[in-house]
UniProtKB/TrEMBL annotation:
SUPFAM superfamilies: FAD-linked oxidoreductase. It catalyses: L-proline + a quinone = (S)-1-pyrroline-5-carboxylate + a quinol + H(+). Pfam families: Pro_dh (PF01619). It comes from Streptomyces indicus. Signal peptide: none annotated. This is proline dehydrogenase. Substrate binds at residues 98, 288-289.
Amino acid sequence: MLGPVILAASRSDKMRRFVSAAPGTKQVVDRFIAGETVDQVIPIVQETAAKGLELTLDVVGEDITTVEQSYAARDAYLELIERLKDLGLGTKAEMSVKLSMFGQALEGGHELALANIKPVVAAAAAIGTTVTLDAEDHTTLDSMFAIHEELRKDFPQTGCVIQAYLFRTEDDARRLAAAGSRVRIVKGAYKEPAEVAYQDKAEIDKAYVRILKILMEGDGYPMIGSHDPRLIAITQELARRAGRKLDDYEFQMLYGIRSEEQERLAAEGHRMRVYTAYGTDWYGYFMRRLAEKPANLLFFARSILTKG
């Protein structure tokens, strides 16, 4: 299985240097990363919104090591929100945030991340949008869920992410599937041990469907993060059985993947949100995209060989 190997490489400084220097890297990175700066990503936001799609914007760069970097991450999101406000795009784009980028892994990180995220959530609410807390590896989740619960006291629209491959997630889904909640379900993209996570793709898919059923039958707002045609069809059937209208849930897909399908679902009346990442520290995000799908890795390898 190449996925676990690639995920391990996502934490390697040596591999980071190799991949960054490879001649074909930029071509592939550009497929998944919308740009390095706010100025580069804003035209993509405008173009995507014009197609009837919505967005969730992620400023990449979770591997921080200093408090100052956590403040810079906070400020990067505040700048993004200000730009969306100026252009009247607040209702078209929400934010996705990794709390590690806000200092969660540093000393006193839980309190630091909470302090950093609060002004971002408040600024997002002021322009008519919201923030979703991304899930990271399993050791960070109790802190993430605690921060999510705290934020929802003043900003109940704050969302969070759950990962189907973790054994704990069915219980988390039951707890979160309450009125007013916004929950994104994904398969999971971190290297997790067998003690806490399913390792077999078929088992992960089964877990995904069980969790999706919990969310659809609950009182919250499910956000389905998947490109899998079978899971998309299952989602539509479970929504129908649960009596949900098309605006009672949404699909989410990554920027650069299955763009025609994104537009097709939007044309059918579904809410379709494009997860759009940008920033200079793209390596960890990029490697997880390669690990998720072998075709992405083959595309990358061909680009290197043809550019070499």
